[in-house]
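testing teh design pipeline on a random one, pls ignore if ur not involved
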């Protein structure tokens, strides 16, 4: 008779069991005061929130102020009026909607072109192996250490000479300004894109090459779809940067009809009419913040996912 299924004596079972001890759940520490030991964090968050909302509240109050002057502006809104908005829209010497259109066109075209060029460079540095690959990446990183202020004089001279031969790409043109922006489109964007490209498995590229696909087809039909979060992230960062860029736009664009929103609104703060035009200035600034706000609200998930995934490689 086999001993595998032999019954075990009751006494042996009792000796094998470990003695049971009553365990009590440790009591949670009592919170002292309002919010416990983290009350200062809530206070700091409230202070930071108030600090961030202070300029927005002041701009809204000044934009809806019927008098529309800096002297009568207050922190808290005293009423609601659309007079400043109507005056801004009907001012023929200051074409607000033309400035708005120029800013949107320059930002959209510049951001799309910057993402495309950055994706091409990132794909080459991530997937291809060629001589000078590492020095090229170091050179792109080195260009980000120099401020754009150092290149303004050189770029002004270059585009002034280009304008003599090709007026559509010279100074005082939106096309020339977009080309100037694209000159600095690489650099940090390539590094951010490459970090995300490296997370895509190389086995997918190898399988596509076995099926006869070229690198161009792999890039356009497969890789771009897999790295869409980082593309959206870079697009948002470049769009916001170009939308609020002032220094280069103020040098390149001199005609009123060619100026961007930032340059045009800045002109309202100069001269003796700055006090009287303050209401229109704040109304334009309030309307100018809408595209950036909508962009972040629409693509905030892609922004967080693209930054976190691309930064760990």
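output:
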């Amino acid at each position: 008779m086999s001993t595998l299924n032999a019954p075990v004596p009751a006494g042996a079972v009792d000796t094998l069991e470990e003695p049971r001890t009553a365990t009590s759940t440790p009591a949670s520490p009592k919170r002292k005061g309002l919010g416990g030991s983290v009350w200062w964090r809530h206070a700091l968050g409230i202070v930071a929130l108030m600090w961030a909302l202070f300029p927005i509240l002041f701009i809204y109050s000044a934009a809806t102020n019927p008098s529309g002057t800096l002297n009568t502006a207050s922190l808290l809104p005293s009423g609601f009026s659309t007079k400043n908005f109507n005056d801004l829209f009907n001012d023929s010497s200051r074409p607000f909607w033309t400035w708005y259109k120029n800013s949107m066109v320059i930002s959209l075209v510049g951001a799309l072109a910057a993402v495309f060029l950055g994706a091409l460079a990132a794909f080459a540095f991530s997937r291809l192996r060629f001589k000078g690959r590492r020095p090229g990446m170091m050179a792109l990183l080195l260009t980000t250490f120099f401020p754009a202020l150092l290149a303004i004089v050189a770029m002004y001279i270059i585009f002034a000479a280009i304008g003599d031969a090709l007026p559509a790409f010279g100074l005082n043109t939106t096309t020339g300004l977009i080309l100037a922006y694209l000159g600095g489109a690489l650099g940090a964007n390539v590094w951010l894109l490459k970090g995300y490209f490296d997370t895509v498995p190389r086995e997918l590229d190898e399988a596509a090459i076995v099926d006869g696909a070229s690198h161009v087809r792999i890039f356009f039909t497969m890789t771009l779809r897999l790295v869409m979060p980082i593309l959206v992230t870079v697009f948002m960062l470049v769009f916001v940067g170009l939308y609020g860029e002032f220094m280069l736009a103020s040098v390149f664009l001199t005609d009123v009809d060619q100026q961007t929103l930032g340059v045009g609104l800045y002109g309202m703060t100069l001269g003796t009419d700055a006090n009287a035009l303050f209401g229109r200035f704040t109304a334009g600034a309030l309307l100018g913040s809408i595209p950036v706000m909508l962009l972040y609200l629409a693509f905030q998930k892609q922004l967080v996912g693209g930054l976190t995934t691309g930064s760990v490689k």
